[in-house]
Write a structure and sequence with these properties.
HTH-type_TetR-like_transc_reg; Arc Repressor Mutant, subunit A; mainly alpha; transcription; transcription regulation; transcription cis-regulatory region binding; HTH_TetR; Tetracycline Repressor, domain 2; elongated
Length: about 200
């Protein structure tokens, strides 16, 4: 299944898109992602979003045609790299700062990842949008932090632990709710970096 599969009336889907202000469009995107977090992807309906945003269901179908397309658009609208700009001049401190920054939004994004976990296995467009919105920007920024550390001579380019740092950082965010029943906050992630990531890189 992909996001091209229709789940709304063909007559509505065929109607040309009407114009929305950026603010109104973002209101729709925020509403659908909030409902995904709170209720799970399968429970979200176009009717429910229409009710929560005080619009007609036909307005949503004119814009996005199907629920998967709507959620994909909402995810892509929020692509941002929160770790971009971290550059203290020290790889160890950059990784601590990355942990603090990640901890500020980890609960919010982890709920979304959990809610979409099953749906993305059957929808390639949804899986790609989720990766583009939440995972890829932070992985790219983290790899840039590591690259600068290599260029400064703080760690060897061929250090075997380098390629695993992104998996360590983002894996623990997903794992902690399962293992401990709690989300990975700033304090926890900084302790994780100091106890697991920095020693693996030979840093203190």
């Amino acid at each position: 299944m992909t996001s091209q599969a229709a789940d709304g009336p063909e007559s509505v889907a065929a109607t040309s898109r009407s114009k929305l202000t950026p603010e109104r469009e973002q209101e729709f995107f925020d509403a659908v992602l909030d409902q995904v977090r709170e209720c799970g992807y399968e429970a979200v309906t176009m009717e429910g979003i229409a009710a929560s945003t005080r619009c007609s269901k036909s307005t949503l179908y004119r814009q996005w045609k199907t629920k998967p397309q709507f959620v994909v658009a909402a995810l892509r609208s929020r692509r941002q790299a929160r770790l971009t700009g971290i550059d203290t001049g020290s790889l160890a401190e950059d990784l601590r700062e990355a942990a603090r920054a990640t901890g500020r939004w980890s609960t919010h994004d982890t709920k979304l990842l959990q809610a979409l976990g099953h749906a993305v296995t059957g929808d390639q467009d949804l899986a790609l949008a989720l990766r583009e919105a939440i995972v890829a920007p932070e992985i790219e920024a983290l790899r840039e932090i590591l690259r600068r550390g290599v260029e400064r001579g703080e760690i060897a380019r061929d250090h075997p632990a380098l390629e695993y740092v992104p998996a360590q950082m983002f894996g623990v965010i997903r794992a902690r709710p399962v293992v401990d029943g709690e989300y990975a906050d700033q304090e926890y992630l900084v302790r994780f970096v100091e106890a697991a990531v920095l020693p693996a890189l030979g840093l203190t």
